[in-house]
């Protein structure tokens, strides 16, 4: 069996997909970065143009009353001739004046939206034809009384974008060719038959079966009508062996390719940073020059310019990137700041008699900050692509190699054991399909009772749901980055509810509907089938996303988002229940850890990609994109997930959900588990991470961008720990200790950080908390299943699991309300410490009691259940 | 006979058309204090631009109180469709005050639009800018709030704290302006040295000259024209005297910066003020509503105009940031 050839093909396909995804997202990022850089440049002219109007306002007149306003606006175009137009407008969007006359009498809705959304005087946006930078003008009491925007045509950005795409295309093609060649070499070296005993054994079995059945022949068409026998794909030695080798090659390829492409992207984008900084320094210099020229042309002698120093100080304050600015005129040098870093210098003829030199030094930290921001943005894209690539690789390997070989091996073993009651029909690779067809023909012909005794083998595994779940989570989370802003733009049709409260209604609706539906997921899935439940929920999610996109008001959006919450929890839990019912107990901890890791990978990826997409294609398009992703997830699940209902039959009476699930609290072990692990982890996740972390980081001086990146690190730590948990023996052998100690560790660091919050400390806490929660996911499920099979066996898994799911969500909601009330009186730091203290003591109690109890009460997944 | 009848018919038709045309073309008059200047020209041009057939009549008091006293009768006899009045003195003479006529007017049912009235509320011409309280009277306003002038001075001269004002106690508008500036000085925290000028023009000129000298001695940094037809009429003498004492003049009338030696004005262009009054007049003429139902129309454009040559003579240059919004004129050399 020449697996290495097939793996090479897979690797090429995989690399093609990975580079396509990376290039697409990096192109969006490039467009966003360059768009922002150009808009930042434009902002300099806008700030310069708005200064006289701010003076007018400070004197007590409206901006519209300045008679020479058109002339003042036109000066910005004299400073930067690339500007298309400069527009002065009032807060309702009516154009008061513009430098270039046009028939337009109101600004576009996107400009008004950008103005309304900005908490700061400076804002920017991009329309279909222009890049726009604006500056709001305030009264002394802080009310916006007008704004100015300047626009550039998109020509420069379009050119930069095409250049970048061409570069990415070339390097992606190179990466695929080189990667394919290297993977061929690597697989050939790693999968030599002499080193692949298990593969050899499987091949020997298949060959043996082929020999045993030589000559037999039957009609293959009956295969599809045979009853299905579902078997879980065990994590056998063969699978592990193949996984190890292929994972190493795929991971190396992914890492090298993505880092390489990211490096190329960074190099291309970085090339724009320094010239852009110089252009901006030049613009600042031109603004100063123009101001001085205006004064000199008005007759003020060059050596008697009044307020020049103050003007320089004002410019330095308005343009934070300016480290120093100086002007040498008539032998007098006036300067502010000390020049460091890059300095733009220009000799200027201010009048026929006055020549001077204007110098502007840019703050070198500005460049460093931009490099760092760019590096982090590209790192996020690399991680996003890598997470998606992992899921793609998993499904590729599972469905086209591990699954087919394992299936054939099972069938071959059944032939060699003399049973001849299974057939198996992989679709590809061609070599395995042909061998399977030969085997199937022979089995059908030689089966003791003919085709009637033969079953069609179907293998099921975690890989069935991974990509679908991942994409579904991405679809759910992608709008999160702009959802509040999207809500703010919708009219509030609930007049009795304040707007600030109204925009939180969709979130409340989402949480409440998720809370209500969580315990219903399992009984519903058992009734209609997990596959049907997921598909229905995913397709309805697509409808809900479209509903959100076209929602005319906050109330309608709340209804759609509530539906979204219910559907998300139903679909997600359908996948979890599918695995719980399918997988053998010894693989449960590992699989549940990976399941949660995949889920949070999707959450991370959705959060990471949502902002970039919204910035480039617009918010409505992101909802449509999410609807598309949810539909793809439904299709993937339809294709991959086995219809369990057909195989396992109907639900037992004792598995039905009832109010009896409250009896869980009658068992002290459950109570201990709920208070010691479930509740603290839910509080850490939903209260500390989602609420307090951002507030504490804000207090510590972190920007919104930094807060988002730390949140992503939390998700990343959770994801990686979840993936790693599958390979850590302790996690499987001692799930109670793992869950308890994980909670204890997270509680301890949160307790500590509450006493002395700092940016670095919070970063550390986010990572530790993420890792703790990631490691605990599998053990928690194992403990729940264990309880449902021991002390709570009379309630059944459905009820125990339902209770846990309610506890996770209701506990978080109650804790959120309590934390808000507590924080109002005692502050965020003490609230954080309280959460840490509670988590520590609760988890310590759980660990101590668990250790003190007899071994029989401990969960040990190695034992047979 | 046939031709004769036809000719008679034509003449009859032509006279009827002429009668109709004469009936539909409006007669607008404007009462002036000191001849037709920029505001008056703005009114005339805008009226003709909006209605080419309009008849525009001027009634000039030629700065004579006796002539002004006869104006109401003259205007009534002219059977105007609408009257425009220039300045506080003229307006009070033509329409009387609220105290005298309550909602009515000395002009009876004739609609009146006043302009160049510095403070029509304080002068008891109207109740407020939005509700005039007079059935047939409305107007325009063309001055920035005095606080804007003071803020402007502070931006031009950061250490400004002493203002000089020359006013005519006998002129209601001028007296009101003094009271307003006096109140503002307490509110905004600057000293005010106010010099009254009384009597005939020679006496007033004498008082003005000595007053400016007193102001200089008292440490005044800026002289504000306030509201005075006398000073406006003798703008050259006034501003040159101030300049000779090294004192800059802030004028509420832009033309004093362009045509005299005033240093700075934060004002609307006089010609534009006239156009605004004409627009208000046409709104009334083209509707059935009574003039008093229209709020007093505010001027919407002002300019910061600096006399560059005066700035040079005084070596008093505004800061760089203010220069970005100034219109600079060299004035009359």
UniProtKB/TrEMBL annotation, chain A:
<keyword id="KW-0472">Membrane</keyword>
<feature type="transmembrane region" description="Helical">
    <location>
        <begin position="762"/>
        <end position="785"/>
    </location>
</feature>
<feature type="transmembrane region" description="Helical">
    <location>
        <begin position="737"/>
        <end position="756"/>
    </location>
</feature>
<feature type="transmembrane region" description="Helical">
    <location>
        <begin position="248"/>
        <end position="269"/>
    </location>
</feature>
<dbReference type="InterPro" id="IPR036259">
    <property type="entry name" value="MFS_trans_sf"/>
</dbReference>
<feature type="transmembrane region" description="Helical">
    <location>
        <begin position="501"/>
        <end position="521"/>
    </location>
</feature>
<feature type="transmembrane region" description="Helical">
    <location>
        <begin position="834"/>
        <end position="853"/>
    </location>
</feature>
<dbReference type="InterPro" id="IPR011701">
    <property type="entry name" value="MFS"/>
</dbReference>
<dbReference type="InterPro" id="IPR020846">
    <property type="entry name" value="MFS_dom"/>
</dbReference>
<feature type="transmembrane region" description="Helical">
    <location>
        <begin position="620"/>
        <end position="639"/>
    </location>
</feature>
<keyword id="KW-1133">Transmembrane helix</keyword>
<keyword id="KW-0812">Transmembrane</keyword>
<dbReference type="Pfam" id="PF07690">
    <property type="entry name" value="MFS_1"/>
</dbReference>
<feature type="transmembrane region" description="Helical">
    <location>
        <begin position="166"/>
        <end position="187"/>
    </location>
</feature>
<feature type="transmembrane region" description="Helical">
    <location>
        <begin position="593"/>
        <end position="614"/>
    </location>
</feature>
<feature type="domain" description="Major facilitator superfamily (MFS) profile">
    <location>
        <begin position="461"/>
        <end position="865"/>
    </location>
</feature>
<protein>
    <recommendedName>
        <fullName>Major facilitator superfamily (MFS) profile domain-containing protein</fullName>
    </recommendedName>
</protein>
<feature type="transmembrane region" description="Helical">
    <location>
        <begin position="670"/>
        <end position="694"/>
    </location>
</feature>
<feature type="transmembrane region" description="Helical">
    <location>
        <begin position="706"/>
        <end position="725"/>
    </location>
</feature>
<feature type="transmembrane region" description="Helical">
    <location>
        <begin position="806"/>
        <end position="828"/>
    </location>
</feature>
<feature type="transmembrane region" description="Helical">
    <location>
        <begin position="533"/>
        <end position="557"/>
    </location>
</feature>
<feature type="transmembrane region" description="Helical">
    <location>
        <begin position="373"/>
        <end position="397"/>
    </location>
</feature>
Automatic annotation (TrEMBL), chain B:
<dbReference type="Pfam" id="PF04392">
    <property type="entry name" value="ABC_sub_bind"/>
</dbReference>
<feature type="signal peptide">
    <location>
        <begin position="1"/>
        <end position="20"/>
    </location>
</feature>
<keyword id="KW-0732">Signal</keyword>
<protein>
    <recommendedName>
        <fullName>ABC transporter substrate-binding protein</fullName>
    </recommendedName>
</protein>
<dbReference type="InterPro" id="IPR007487">
    <property type="entry name" value="ABC_transpt-TYRBP-like"/>
</dbReference>
């Amino acid at each position: 069996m020449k697996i290495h050839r097939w793996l090479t093909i897979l690797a090429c396909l995989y690399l093609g997909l990975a580079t396509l995804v990376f290039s697409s997202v990096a192109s969006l990022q490039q467009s966003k970065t360059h768009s922002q850089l150009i808009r930042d440049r434009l902002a300099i002219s806008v700030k310069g143009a708005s200064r006289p109007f701010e003076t007018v306002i400070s004197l007590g007149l409206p901006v519209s009353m300045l008679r020479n306003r058109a002339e003042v606006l036109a000066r910005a175009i004299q400073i930067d001739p690339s500007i298309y137009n400069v527009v002065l407008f009032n807060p309702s969007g009516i154009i008061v004046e513009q430098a270039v006359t046009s028939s337009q009498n109101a600004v576009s809705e996107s400009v008004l939206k950008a103005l309304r959304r900005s908490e700061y005087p400076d804002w920017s946006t991009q329309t279909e034809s222009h890049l726009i930078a604006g500056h709001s003008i305030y009264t002394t009491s802080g009310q916006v009384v007008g704004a100015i925007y300047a626009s550039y045509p998109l020509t420069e950005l379009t050119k930069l974008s095409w250049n970048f795409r061409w570069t990415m295309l070339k390097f992606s093609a190179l990466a695929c060719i080189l990667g394919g060649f290297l993977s061929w070499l690597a697989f050939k070296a790693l999968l030599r038959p002499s080193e692949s005993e298990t593969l050899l054994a499987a091949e020997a079995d298949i060959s043996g079966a082929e020999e045993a059945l030589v000559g037999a022949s039957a009609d293959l068409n009956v295969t599809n009508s045979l009853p299905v026998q579902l078997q879980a794909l065990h994590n056998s030695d063969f699978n592990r062996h193949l996984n190890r080798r292929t994972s190493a090659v795929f991971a190396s390829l992914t890492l090298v390719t993505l880092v390489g492409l990211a490096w190329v992207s960074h190099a291309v984008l970085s090339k724009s940073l320094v010239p852009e900084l110089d252009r901006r320094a030049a613009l600042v210099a031109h603004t100063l020059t123009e101001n001085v020229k205006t004064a000199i042309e008005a007759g003020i002698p060059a050596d008697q310019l009044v307020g020049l120093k103050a003007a320089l100080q004002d410019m330095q304050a308005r343009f934070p990137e300016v480290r120093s600015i100086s002007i040498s005129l008539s032998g007098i040098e006036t300067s502010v700041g000390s020049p460091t870093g890059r300095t733009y210098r220009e000799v200027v003829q201010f009048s026929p008699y006055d020549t001077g030199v204007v110098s502007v030094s840019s703050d070198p930290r500005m460049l460093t900050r931009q490099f760092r921001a760019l590096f982090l943005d590209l790192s996020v894209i690399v991680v996003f692509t890598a997470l998606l690539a992992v899921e793609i690789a998993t499904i590729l390997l599972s469905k086209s190699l591990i699954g087919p070989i394992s299936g054939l091996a099972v069938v071959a073993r059944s032939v060699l054991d003399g049973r001849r009651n299974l057939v198996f029909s992989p679709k590809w690779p061609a070599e395995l399909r042909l061998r399977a067809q030969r085997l199937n023909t022979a089995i059908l012909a030689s089966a003791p009772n003919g085709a009637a005794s033969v079953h069609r083998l179907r293998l099921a595994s975690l890989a069935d749901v991974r990509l679908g779940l991942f994409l579904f989570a991405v679809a759910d989370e992608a709008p999160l980055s702009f959802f509040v802003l999207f809500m703010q733009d919708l009219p509030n049709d609930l007049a009795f509810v304040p707007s600030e409260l109204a925009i939180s209604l969709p979130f409340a609706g989402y949480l409440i509907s998720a809370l209500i539906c969580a315990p219903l997921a399992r009984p519903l899935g058992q009734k209609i089938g997990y596959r049907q439940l997921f598909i229905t929920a995913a397709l309805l999610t697509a409808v809900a996303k479209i509903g959100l996109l076209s929602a005319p008001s906050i109330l309608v959006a709340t209804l759609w988002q509530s539906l979204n919450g219910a559907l998300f929890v139903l679909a997600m839990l359908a996948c979890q229940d599918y695995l719980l019912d399918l997988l053998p107990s010894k693989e449960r901890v590992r699989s549940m850890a990976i399941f949660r890791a995949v889920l949070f990978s999707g959450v991370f990826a959705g959060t990471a990609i949502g902002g970039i997409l919204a910035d480039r294609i617009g918010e409505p398009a992101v909802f449509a994109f999410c609807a598309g992703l949810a539909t793809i997830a439904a299709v993937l699940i339809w294709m991959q997930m086995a219809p369990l209902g057909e195989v396992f039959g109907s639900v037992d009476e004792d598995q039905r959900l009832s109010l009896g699930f409250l009896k869980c609290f009658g068992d002290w072990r459950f109570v201990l588990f709920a208070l010691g692990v479930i509740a603290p982890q839910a509080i850490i996740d939903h209260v500390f991470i989602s609420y307090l972390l951002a507030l504490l980081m804000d207090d510590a001086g972190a920007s919104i961008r930094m807060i988002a990146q730390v949140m992503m690190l939390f998700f990343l730590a959770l994801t990686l720990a979840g993936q790693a948990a599958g390979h850590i023996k302790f996690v499987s052998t001692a799930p109670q200790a793992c869950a308890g100690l994980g909670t204890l560790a997270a509680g301890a660091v949160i307790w500590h950080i509450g006493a002395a919050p700092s940016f670095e400390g919070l970063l550390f806490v986010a990572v530790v908390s993420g890792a703790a929660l990631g490691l605990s996911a599998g053990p928690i499920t194992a403990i729940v299943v264990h309880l449902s099979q021991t002390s709570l066996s009379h309630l059944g898994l459905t009820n125990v699991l339902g209770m846990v799911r309610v506890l996770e969500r209701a506990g978080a909601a109650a804790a959120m309300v309590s934390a808000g009330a507590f924080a109002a009186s005692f502050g965020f730091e003490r609230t954080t410490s309280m959460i840490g203290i509670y988590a520590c003591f609760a988890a310590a109690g759980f660990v101590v009691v668990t250790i003190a109890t007899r071994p029989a009460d401990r969960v040990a997944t190695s034992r047979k259940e | 006979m046939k031709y004769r009848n036809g000719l008679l018919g034509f003449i009859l038709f032509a006279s009827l058309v002429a009668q109709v045309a004469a009936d539909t073309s409006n007669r607008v008059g404007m009462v002036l204090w000191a001849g037709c200047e920029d505001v008056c020209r703005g009114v005339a041009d805008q009226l003709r631009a909006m209605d080419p057939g309009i008849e525009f009549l001027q009634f000039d008091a030629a700065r004579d109180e006796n002539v002004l006293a006869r104006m109401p009768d003259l205007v009534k006899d002219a059977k105007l469709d609408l009257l425009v009045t220039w300045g506080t003195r003229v307006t009070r003479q033509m329409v009387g005050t609220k105290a005298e006529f309550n909602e009515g007017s000395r002009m009876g049912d004739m609609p009146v639009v006043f302009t160049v009235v510095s403070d029509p509320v304080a002068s008891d011409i109207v109740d407020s800018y939005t509700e005039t309280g007079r059935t047939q009277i409305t107007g325009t306003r063309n001055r920035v709030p005095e606080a804007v002038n003071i803020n402007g001075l502070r931006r031009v001269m950061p250490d400004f704290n002493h203002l000089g004002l020359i006013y005519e106690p006998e002129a209601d508008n001028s007296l009101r302006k003094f009271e307003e500036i006096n109140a503002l000085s307490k509110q905004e925290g600057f000293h005010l040295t106010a010099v009254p000028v009384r009597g005939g023009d020679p006496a007033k000129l004498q008082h003005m000259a000595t007053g400016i000298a007193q102001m200089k001695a008292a440490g005044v940094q800026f002289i504000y024209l306030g509201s005075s037809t006398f000073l406006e009429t003798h703008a050259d003498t006034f501003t040159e005297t101030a300049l000779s004492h090294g004192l800059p003049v802030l004028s509420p009338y832009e033309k004093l910066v362009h045509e005299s030696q005033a240093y700075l004005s934060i004002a609307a262009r006089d010609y534009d003020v006239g156009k605004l009054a004409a627009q208000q007049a046409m709104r009334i003429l083209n509707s059935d509503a009574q003039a008093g139902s229209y709020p007093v129309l505010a001027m919407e454009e002002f300019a910061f105009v600096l006399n560059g040559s005066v700035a040079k003579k005084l070596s008093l240059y505004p800061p760089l940031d203010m220069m970005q919004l100034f219109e600079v004129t060299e004035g009359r050399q």
